[in-house]
Amino acid sequence: MPCPAIAVPAGARAARPKPPAPDQQQREVGGAELASAGLTIPAGAPVPAKLTATSWLVADLGSGAVLGACGAHEYATPASVQKLLLAATYMPKLDPARMVEVTHADMDYEPGSSAVGLVEGSQYSIKTLWLSLLLKSGNDAANVLARVGGGTSDFRAGVEAMNAEARRLGAHQTHAVTPSGLDGPGQFTSAYDMALIARACYARADFRRYTATDTALIPPQRNGAGGFQLNNDNGLLHRYPGMLGGKTGFTDLAGQTYVGVAERNGRRLVVTLLGAESAPIGSYGEVTTLMDWGFALPGDVSVGQLIEPENADASPGAQLTPVAGPAPGESETSTFSAKRIVLTAGIATLLVALVLLGWARRVRVRSAAGNRDQERED
């Protein structure tokens, strides 16, 4: 059925960039039901309220089960939620204690767009840059992180690495042009892809700490630049019960975008929202509407699956076995250890089976030889 949509007055929405030609295989990643441009919800589930967002998705962050979606694989412009892809790419690789100096090239971002106020020639820790990125959506911080991560004089190599990470995660409809999410030609994502990227981010304890931080301090610099305080711009962090964090975004081409995660009774849901309008309830109102809808559903329903990176190259639409993510409070190390134990047990079981098979075969051979000897004696 069509997505429940609030009518947007003619001319109120900026013309969106022309998306790439649809790829049916990409549209079926995570399950054939997700290929629809319309509403996809479990049988018998209540229809969500009308929204202005052009596409959205609700999924269980632990099991990866997609609970519902509107145009899950429709191309959309990301705005600053693309900073999550930057975090997924480089947070595992950059030492948070490392000090880096801001260069002139890092100041190459759209005037008037969101920036923290980093000073050229000043030095900041990688940790401070992540806080600047996630609390204040600093486009200057995004440029520094992409440049340092890419190891070149500007952010272009960093953006190439972001696109490689998107492919590794199975987010094949995502193509970054800027590290910050500022609009660029050919820059797109989808609600499904952003859920994959968010799941990778929230699997990390350091990311969860950063995105849930209320305030942080930018230290004063030796060159005379003063220090100042950062406040978390995510208005839902303390307004929605169980909110663990989120990332906002806005550009004229993208409209309002949002990716957020909340937890109730040990169950974590992720909502991705693209192409929303500021009225009548804005992205915050639309996200909370979808969160409430998702938490009201039973825990065993789904219309698709967030694929695991190891399945990213599998045939789109294949029935993929859900793999549970870390339980609330569980570390990535313990999850890895559990998987290693399961793998070791599986190998041991296989070896035992092979030994038993060989033993049985030898018994059959000896038995057959004995039968032949018995026949000759008869």
From TrEMBL:
Substrate binds at K247. Pfam families: Peptidase_S11. The keyword Cell cycle does not apply. The active site is at S80 (acyl-ester intermediate), K83 (proton acceptor), S137. The chain crosses the membrane at residues 341-360. Residues 8-28, 311-331 are annotated as: Disordered. This is D-alanyl-D-alanine carboxypeptidase.
